[in-house]
Specification:
mainly beta; SH3 type barrels; OB fold (Dihydrolipoamide Acetyltransferase, E2P); five-stranded antiparallel β-sheet
Length: about 190
C-alpha cells in the first residue's frame, strides 16, 4: 500500500474500483497546530475519461491500481475502431470509442506505442509525443507572401488536418506534436 507521500503526476491509482491517472498534485500545509496536510489531486478516470478532483489527508493510504504499461503495436483500422497487439504476449485488442477517436489521426500501420492495461483490458493508448507524417494534400505555395507568417490547412497521410506554414508542399514530411495536434517543423 502506498501513502499520500507517494502521490505524483503520472501515477495510476485506484479510486472507486477504477484506474485513475494523477494529472496534478498540490500540497497545502496546515496553518494551525494539529492540522493535517492536504494533498489535493486532479485525476482522470481511465475507464470513463472524466477529470475529477479529490483531497487526501497526509498519511492516508492509497490503493495502487492493477495497471501496467506494455509495448504495443497498431495493426490496422477495423470499422469504427482499430486493432492493437500487445508485443509481450501477442494478444490482440480491438479498441473503439473515445479512447480510439483521440488518437486516430496519429496512427500508422505497424507503429509502436504504449498500451495501458487494467485487469486484462486496454484502457489507455499512448502514442509517441512527436511523429513524422507525410503531407498528402495542401494548397499551392503563395509566392512573395512573406510580410506576415501565413498558414494553410494540410491533409496528412493519416487523415489528420492541421495548419502548416505556407511554404510546405504536398509530399513533404512534417513533425507533429501529438499532445495538441500542431505542426512543429519539417522532418
Amino acid at each position: 500500500m502506498a501513502t499520500t507521500a507517494d502521490l505524483k503526476r503520472g501515477l495510476v491509482i485506484q479510486i472507486d474500483h477504477a484506474p485513475c491517472l494523477v494529472l496534478d498534485v498540490s500540497i497545502q500545509s496546515p496553518s494551525a497546530r494539529g492540522g493535517n496536510t492536504l494533498f489535493k489531486t486532479k485525476f482522470r478516470n481511465l475507464l470513463t475519461g472524466q477529470v475529477l478532483e479529490k483531497a487526501f489527508k497526509g498519511g492516508d493510504r492509497i490503493e495502487p491500481a492493477d495497471f501496467e504499461k506494455r509495448k504495443g503495436q497498431f495493426l490496422y483500422l477495423s470499422g469504427e475502431g482499430g486493432v492493437f497487439m500487445d508485443l509481450l504476449n501477442y494478444e490482440q485488442y480491438e479498441i473503439s470509442g473515445e479512447t480510439f477517436e483521440e488518437i486516430r489521426g496519429y496512427l500508422l500501420e505497424g507503429m509502436e506505442l504504449q498500451l495501458g492495461v487494467f485487469q486484462g483490458n486496454v484502457v489507455s493508448i499512448d502514442v509517441p509525443l512527436t511523429l513524422e507524417l507525410k503531407v498528402v494534400e495542401t494548397a499551392p505555395v503563395i509566392k512573395h507572401a512573406t510580410a506576415t507568417a501565413q498558414t494553410k490547412e494540410a491533409l496528412l497521410e493519416t487523415g489528420l488536418k492541421l495548419q502548416v506554414p505556407s511554404y510546405l508542399e504536398a509530399g513533404e514530411k512534417v513533425k507533429v506534436d501529438t499532445r495538441d495536434g500542431r505542426f512543429i517543423s519539417r522532418a
